[in-house]
Amino acid sequence: MLPAIVEIKPDVFFTGAFDPKIRTFDIIMKTANGSSYNSYIVRGSEGVAVMDTVKKEFSDDFFARLERLCAYDEIKYIVLHHLEPDHSGALIELMERAPNAKLIISGRAVMMLKGIVKTDIPYEIATAGKIISLGNKTIEFIMTPFLHWPDTMSSYLHEEKLLFSGDVFGSHYYDERLFDDLVGDFSYAFHYYYDHIMRPFKPFVLQALKLYEQFDIDLIAPLHGPILRSNPKNYIDKYAQWSSEARFRKNAFNTKMLSVFYISSYDNTHKMAEKITEGADSVDGIRASMYDLASLDEPNMITLLEESDAILIGSPTINGDAVKPAWDLLSCMAYLERTGKIGATFGSYGWTGEAPEMLHERLKGLKFRLPLKPLKVKLIPTEEELNACVAFGCEASEIAMGKMIEMEI
């Protein structure tokens, strides 16, 4: 059975592929509803532009749709908005079938292209404001790097007021009804996608939204999930809100936030955490909070980490390592902008005590500012050691408030 042909705007067609069985995407994302690899073609009076391809394993559906809509010698341009394999998987075969087509990529994509295809192929560089013509259709390029790869760009089809957004505004959500006003409720998938793909790049999201403001957008065609035609501005506004919303502690109370996360086996690291929090909260301008990692799930971790100006992590040492909840917390950092955040580590131990140093090294790799050496206590902390914990928290807060100190490089 041939895949359905869907026209999303006059002479603009969906040529993508559906992946209903995928349950994990890029290792880190759950895809309970499957996903799609969206590709499109634009037919003009003077030729056709192919807007992205699909994952290699789904090339048959892509070519089956494409061949029902145009001949290969009609293809004037192949545009790749970004070169991740799920969007460039059919590129080599497409260029073999349409040898006269011009490949257009962003300048940042050149090295990635060579890494993916492992050979030299001709290409043109898209720059901000560059326009390609298909006769009665004109496509303008918009540079939107780091959404979520450095090479990402968007493009705008002027005559149809259509934004080809790249990964921005995407969702991992399979539904062959395709349009946002026809598919099932994908609001969770839309927000989940933002949190796991775009959230670390909030400054770049806001830059892109500023660029999109110059265009009258009637439809958004992303690279994954439903096509957004019912109210495109609603989705743009959601991204704007999520990327710039005022965090309540910092703005309502004009304070900086210091968060102490801990996991404890025999209550010793817990006692350290309590005293560290006490010391941290004694500094004017700081609101300190303490969280038991045994009771936090990932969404809450991400929100707290994002809000925090300083993050202190405590773990006992078990079998020569920090315990899993502490590593889980650090794995959430991948979703966040970490510039300027202060980090510190602590923990009680029985034998070798590696955990605080191991967590410290991971924070260093994540580019945290690390003004304090790891604080370790053997077994049950003494009164003197608990006083040192108070001083440790106080020092972290004072640094967060601007105290100058030599940082570890």
Instruction: Please state the structural category.
Output: alpha/beta
Helix content: 25-40%
Instruction: Let me know the largest β-sheet.
Output: 7 strands, mixed
Write down the overall mean pLDDT: 93
Distance between the termini: 60 Å
Query: How many beta-strand runs?
Result: 21
Measured by DSSP, the beta-strand proportion falls in 15-25%
Which overall shape is indicated by the principal axes computed on the Cα atoms? elongated
Number of helices: 13
List keywords for this structure.
409 residues; alpha/beta; Metallo-beta-lactamase, Chain A; Rossmann fold; 2 domains; 32% helix
Give the topology, please.
Blueprint: E1 6-9, E2 12-14, E3 17-19, E4 24-25, E5 29-30, E6 35-37, E7 40-44, E8 47-51, H1 59-69, E9 75-79, H2 85-88, H3 91-97, E10 102-106, H4 110-117, E11 124-126, E12 131-133, E13 138-143, E14 153-157, E15 162-166, H5 187-198, H6 202-212, E16 219-222, H7 232-244, H8 248-252, E17 256-262, H9 268-281, E18 286-292, H10 298-307, E19 310-314, H11 324-331, E20 342-349, H12 355-365, E21 375-378, H13 383-400
Helix pairs in contact: 6-7, 9-13
Describe the structure.
This protein is an alpha/beta fold and 409 residues long. The chain has 2 domains: 6-244, Ribonuclease Z/Hydroxyacylglutathione hydrolase-like (Metallo-beta-lactamase, Chain A), CATH 3.60.15.10; 249-397, Flavodoxin domain (Rossmann fold), CATH 3.40.50. Helix content is 32%, strand content 23%. The protein is built from 13 helices and 21 strands. It has helices at 59-69, 85-88, 91-97, 110-117, 187-198, 202-212, 232-244, 248-252, 268-281, 298-307, 324-331, 355-365, 383-400; strands spanning 6-9, 12-14, 17-19, 24-25, 29-30, 35-37, 40-44, 47-51, 75-79, 102-106, 124-126, 131-133, 138-143, 153-157, 162-166, 219-222, 256-262, 286-292, 310-314, 342-349, 375-378. The strands form 5 sheets. The chain has a 7-stranded mixed sheet, covered by helices on one side. The chain has a 5-stranded mixed sheet with strand order 12-13-14-15-16. Strand 19, helix 11 and strand 20 (342-349) form a beta-alpha-beta unit. The longest helix has 18 residues, at 383-400.
